[in-house]
Specification:
This protein is mainly β. The chain has strands at residues 3-7, 10-13, 18-25, 32-39, 46-52, 57-59, 67-72, 77-82, 91-100, 105-109, 113-118. A hairpin with a 4-residue loop joins strand 5 (46-52) and strand 6. The radius of gyration is 14 Å and the shape is elongated. The mean pLDDT is 96.
């Protein structure tokens, strides 16, 4: 069983920074993608950024140049450094892990962490 534990959310003023962390435990195969999604009130969940085990990163246009995703494979942990935060970044942020094996693709979600940016 895979578990994702997130930390690092909170309240910050516009222009400030926060760093989110997500540690994965359990049976994690080597081919995977770790990433962050977010969901604002009355909006659909959207991809923020992800980082494949092959080293490829992907960002939403709205966060390019402000957010940086990184991962520590030895610790099965992914980070999201968020700088120059805006009020529109306010959302619940969810850690996501996709695991690919020759037999299946499995997806896991963290419990979510609230990020609130005050203007």
């Amino acid at each position: 069983q895979v578990q994702l534990v997130e930390s690092g959310g909170g309240l910050v003023q516009a222009g400030g920074s926060l760093r989110l962390s997500c540690a994965a435990s359990g049976s994690i195969f080597s081919v995977n993608i770790m990433g962050w999604y977010r969901q604002a009130p009355e909006k659909q969940r959207e991809l923020v950024a992800d980082f494949s085990s092959g080293g490829r990163t992907n960002y939403a246009d709205s966060v390019k140049g402000r957010f940086t995703i990184s991962r520590d494979n030895a610790k099965n942990t992914v980070y999201l450094q968020m700088n120059s935060l805006k009020s529109e970044d306010t959302a619940v942020y969810y850690c996501n892990l996709k695991i690919f094996t020759p037999w299946s693709t499995r997806e896991y979600w963290g419990q979510g962490t609230q990020v609130t940016v005050s203007s």
